[in-house]
Amino acid sequence: MTGKKYFGGCDAGSTYTKCVILDEEGKIQASVTKRSRINPVLSAQDALDEAIGMVEGLNSAEELTYLIGTGYGRNKVPFADENISEISCHAMGVHVTDPEVKAIIDIGGQDVKGIAIDTDGTVLNFAMNDRCAAGTGRFFESMARAFEMSLEEFSNLALTTKNVIPITAQCAVFAESEVISLVGEGKPMNEIAAGIELSVAKRCFVMAKKAGATDSVTLTGGCAKNEGLKRAIEKVLKVKVVDLKVDPQLMCALGAAEYARQKGLHRTA
């Protein structure tokens, strides 16, 4: 084992599992994003093993000075010293990436969160919608399947039109049926896609306002890479969507790793 200290954060999400390893200065030494398996223990172990393999001198998660689990399966992360909620970890991850950002919309695999960040990276306020799949990562995956496209192709489709065909259904199941019907009718697919992005952006409105988004907001989670959604959110919320310099899908794991760094350095001082 190396004499250097390393700190880990593992975000065991419902759709993807992410892992970040930091050094003592808070620099990212390894990051991994993997599709989650049915068993969250195995998902976390896979991500941790891959990340640890990227850091010279580390052989197992047990050798990390401090490890924090977060996300849907945070209680299942092997060798974790403790777990912290994903809301707190998203806030800290964004804070260390860009301290100027004070509002987050996190679109996860199964829920949507609005988070306000305090000056020290802690959570000032938050709101969450986890009662309906519409507007979540799984919803976008089902929409991409309906269009017979990859997620990346679908996310860019809405950028090719100024016209929008509204999606009126509020339920994910009915929305998918509505979209399939519109496609079957031969409606322009880019206009349908624009309607989907707009309907999700409207769902984010309440979350963003509760997060205190006034002039800018950032997106975290895999859906933050959806260019069509970013444009729709800017239109609906009338705020600027700030792009982060670190992969937005890693924010929760990064925040967990930063908490691990702070706690580990304090514990071993």
Structure characterization notes:
By secondary structure, the protein is of the alpha/beta class. The chain has two domains: 7-98 and 249-268, 2-Layer Sandwich (Nucleotidyltransferase, domain 5); 103-243, 2-Layer Sandwich (Nucleotidyltransferase, domain 5). Helices cover 39% and strands 20% of the residues. The longest helix is centred in the C-terminal third of the chain and has 22 residues, at 189-210. The model has no long low-confidence stretch (mean pLDDT 90).
What composes the largest sheet?
5 strands, mixed
The number of E-state strands comes to: 10
- Can you count the helices? 8
Sequence of secondary-structure elements: EEEHEEHEEEHHHHEHEH
Average of per-residue pLDDT values = 90
Q: State the CATH class of the largest domain.
A: Alpha Beta
Whole-number count of domains = 2
Rg: 19 Å
Overall shape: globular
Low-confidence stretches: none
Strand content: 15-25%
Short description:
The chain has two domains: 7-98 and 249-268, 2-Layer Sandwich (Nucleotidyltransferase, domain 5); 103-243, ATPase, nucleotide binding domain (Nucleotidyltransferase, domain 5), CATH 3.30.420.40. Helices cover 39% and strands 20% of the residues.
